[in-house]
Amino acid sequence: MPATLHDFDFSTLLGDELLSKDGPRPTASALKDVDVVALYFSAHWCPPCRGFTPALGKFYDQIKDSKNFEIIFVSSDRDASQFKEYYDEQADWAALPFKDRATKNALS
What we know:
Layout: H1 11-14, E1 17-20, E2 23-26, H2 27-30, E3 36-42, H3 47-63, E4 69-75, H4 80-89, E5 94-95, H5 101-107
Parallel strand pairs: 3-4, 4-5
Antiparallel strand pairs: 1-2
C-alpha cells in the first residue's frame, strides 16, 4: 500500500493514458502531485448528470488549484460521438478515453 496518494500509481487503476482538453496525456503526469482525485461517472443521455455537471465544473474551477484537486470523467455514454460532445461541454478536467471500455467497466 502506498504511503501517500502521491506514491500511488494511478495507471494501474486508470490505464497509461488520460484524455485532456489538449489531447492524450500520460496518467502519471496528469495526476503528478495531485492531493485529491475524484472519478466522475456521468453520461450525455442522463438528465440529472447534465444538470449536475455545470455545478461540478464551477466547483472544480474554484478549488482545483488551491486544493490540488483533479476530476477524471468516466463516461457511460453509448458511443464516442456522445462522449466527445458531452466532454467538450465540461470543465477542463481529464477523462478516461472513451475507447477504454474495459477500464470503465472495471471501475463501474
